Amino acid sequence: MQTQALLFDLDGTLAASESLKGRALADTCAAFGHPVDYRRYADVMGGDWPTVTSHFFRLANLEIDLATFNEHFRPRYQQLLADEACLSPGADALLAAAQAAGVRLAVVSSAARWMVDSVLERCGVAERFELVISKEDVDRHKPDPAAYLLALDKLQLPASAVCVLEDSAAGLAAARAAGCRCLVLRHDFNHGHDFCAADATLHTLADALPLLA
Questions:
Q1: Does the pLDDT of residue 172 top 70, yes or no?
Q2: pLDDT of residue 213 exceeding 70
């Protein structure tokens, strides 16, 4: 079946923001006097927020409640997004080609809505997407397929009519469990992920342009 919609994961897929999230996590730990290497975010990239933050708390030997940490993390991450967030290589070309071909566009992310909105606005692409699914929209997050199943329901499309673009093993598992084709984008933070179940791996999002031919 011809591709009728592209469903994009956000961080690390549509936007080159994984390093910014890692830096914000590390900077927040450092603000409490417990420095940690931001590159260790690669260990948990794609995990839910409690998993990610618990990992950094262990690395930093930091004892703090999550709400307090989040209060300090949010402004630091927002600052980095405002200063540095950008689309992943090839994203603009793929979005433009999809719109020209009449292919529908959606974002399906496990991140909090404020994070998703901040990235989309900073990158200037918020208006291109007819649907945005975020953490608040589902009770179960990737690798559970709930977010992708919700997107299919809202778009009123069968799984065979969409293609998912992801960058994590959890995201790939969620897409496949929803019955969708899935392409994964390789980058510096996901070299340790197993993408054997992907339909293809991409070096840039422009590699997905043949989907629209």
A1: yes
A2: no
